[in-house]
Amino acid sequence: MIFITTSLITFKVRDAFTFFGVSDYSVVVRDPNGSILSYKSNNPIFKFQGDKKGKYEFEFYADGYQTLSTYFMIDDTTNLDVDILLSSKASKLDDVKLMPDEVLIEGYVSDNDNLKPLPNVKIKVGNLTTFTNEKGYFSIRLITFSPYEDENSREYRVISDRKDMSFSKFGYKDYILKNVLIVPGRKIIRIALEKGQGFVIKEYKHGLIDRKTDEYLIKDG
Predict the structure, then answer these.
(1) Which one has a higher pLDDT value, 118 or 204?
(2) Strands (E) located in the chain
(3) Which residues pair with 219 in a beta bridge?
(4) pLDDT at residue 36 above 90?
């Protein structure tokens, strides 16, 4: 009797800027024997099972995105979760003019399971509140300065601060981002909400990528 064991790699194919799922792409796989396998997917979550030990090479293609290539050495016990971040060929960041003391916090909120944008998510920063639009996007502006110290010179001092941010939507766990650094400039945050009750608390890290520590992140360049 021959027992065939397989390895499983679960890819989450995302837009590198928004972190939303990319749902129309192709995957070309070269297995350890050099055989070529091709797949077409309309689901941002792509599961691949390998039945051979060795090196598997992957190429991800999607219209409007740069091609991404990567590889994994797998055996019969491999079980991986991998984020694939596809970079758009066109810039998605509009120019924004800010005052020297102004902070712009913007970002995108998605469903953690299907990677789709989440509209009408309530976002609070201090005493300010906003909501995501139909594309899962939000923006909020803050001013960071102390009152005029000298009315004659009209000088003020720009200050830094830390505030908690909360994200909430009915049917999803509240997401609390602790100690977000509030300094003049532009800050972009991507958050994925989980279905259910209760809350998730995370400590803010510069360049936040919301993922588990045992997941892989693959980005071209």
Answers:
(1) 118
(2) 7-15, 25-30, 36-41, 45-50, 54-61, 68-74, 79-86, 102-111, 122-125, 128-131, 137-143, 161-168, 174-182, 185-193, 199-203, 216-219
(3) 85
(4) yes
What pLDDT digit, counting tens, does each position of 111-162 carry? 999 999 999 999 999 888 999 999 999 999 887 755 445 555 545 455 567 8
- The string of DSSP codes covering 99-114 is -TTEEEEEEEEEETTT
Q: Considering only CA atoms, which of 7, 177, 200 is closest in space to residue 112? A: 200
| pLDDT for 71 beyond 70 | yes
8 Å CB contact between 21 and 13: yes
CA 57, CA 130: separation in Å to the nearest integer? 43
Measured from the Cβ of residue 163, the count of other Cβ atoms closer than 10 Å reads 18
Contact predicate 51/6, CB 8 Å: yes
The residue-averaged pLDDT of 179-204 equals 87
Residue 219 near residue 87, CB atoms below 8 Å: yes
216 burial class (0-12, 13-18, 19+ CB within 10 angstroms)?
middle
Calculate mean pLDDT across residues 78-88: 91
- Virtual torsion, Cα 158, 141, 118, 163, nearest 10 deg: 30
Contact 215, 209 (CB under 8 A): no
Contact of 130 with 138, CB cutoff 8 Å:
yes
Indicate the pTM of the whole model: 0.76
In 3D, which of 125, 159, 156, 163 has the Cα closest to residue 141? 125
